[in-house]
What does this fold into?
Amino acid sequence: MTKATATCSDLACLEANEGNVIDVDGSYVFPPDPQRKGQHLHRLTLADGTNLVLHAKHPKLTKDIDGKPITARGVFYKHPIPDRYNIIQALADPYLVELYDVVVR
It folds into this structure.
């Protein structure tokens, strides 16, 4: 298991740890229309209101946990997001581009 270097629940902490493996605490938001482009993104709402896009897929990210607090372990980037992640037309929101684990709290 990859270890996290920090636990974040706001944008300032995310920015201070950009590119590192971190744990992010927030409320999970299931996409409104998982099959429709633009409406298919899984998100995590942080304590300061920041919406973090969960770019990577994980089997624990299901409609059953919509609205519940979770901790997601992964790698965060704001902008620019490195090309190796192949994110075309990124939203202004920050992204968790690698997702190693999800814990429902």
User: Anything to note?
Assistant: The chain has one domain: 7-104. The chain has one helix and six strands. The beta strands are 7-8, 21-29, 42-45, 51-54, 69-77, 95-104.
